[in-house]
């Protein structure tokens, strides 16, 4: 990893750390992760015109929605299936080191919140295996915690917390997340 | 919490306890939860006419269904996204202390069973953080157990069992669940 | 279980074991499951003509798909809800000992991969309770590992790994999976 990339990852970490409350930080000091990983992943939603580049698609919508445009009422009821590239830095065009695969759904009418069920799937020399995630993502918050509910291969039986941060978004088509994975159970 | 509310919560607990089998109770005595919480949550399904009050919406349906009426064949294949208020007592109009957010799907043609993936999201002085749930809900049974698969904030790394009980329902639009959350791993 | 059935289960186990890498096997020896279970389950997707026999149905599809035929682009975006019989041997017509209930979704355009969220639900003298699963299923691989994220009843608080193997498929309507469940946390 070049020094520029290292700086980008540190930047993501710093943003996440600086936005934690003091009380939370205090508690976390006593809970040192047994493994820590920082990645970016990139989501490009299919909008009827970007079939080639899209990495995700709306597959369910409420009665007032459709499948090529996120619905009104804060996208409430839209379900999106995704196969997003995972990269070490924030560049969409960097060589992916794995795929983020699963779904998210928007679940509030008044603001943007989501619920996520997905896996990070790795098959490289660096990492083999998968990490499974689930949890609520109130995506207007700077950082959000979801659960690592299990893992396979190199991440056999993992449990922990993943802190998500929206690193960038463009319109309602592209967004990029930074993920700080902290495992507290390692086998 | 006033004495009337206390009685309602106790009533929910009593119903749940009295319907456990003796064998199950015996086993459970040896497994004392490290944390226990009892809540109600309230689901009002969008039916095309109740946009203002609805807290959930059908977003997927089988080929024989639609998105404003639960489908025939025991609603098999309907997927519902929800953002339901959580209350301390069984009154829909009590001040919510959090939100139950996620989805359920009906998964049997011959009778009513569901599969749930959701979170309790809290952001009050009493509780901050989230509890993540997944599991099968054979909802014609008086009580049903699902898994607590993780938690964040005050519920960091939680695992346990949540016992669901249908406390009330009106037609196919409103239903109210009582949830008895028992955590057996607390950090 | 008759000797023919025993041979079939052993056959499934042998296939799974023989396809593990030597390195993986070595690691696994140090991690002996506290409980191990092998089952088959059977999925028959509704295609508009098999309402009587179907055990599952497409409930969501991308903009380019529909609900009676798995979509193009490797079924990307199709969501299937299922209630599949679980059997001890590979015979669809054997007496089911439980039901596999939940959903899977196809999440890659270039090849067949899925994400699963489901439960095994048992209510017999042999097993009472449920096992909850989640994880990525790259179904072109001979074997795939997903996570056991929790359990109830006889499987109270279970955690572990389930190895899936496609045992047979016919067109895009019927497929049969062999599942080797290894629990590493038993209560």
Automatic annotation (TrEMBL), chains A, B, C:
Protein name, as recorded: Uncharacterized protein
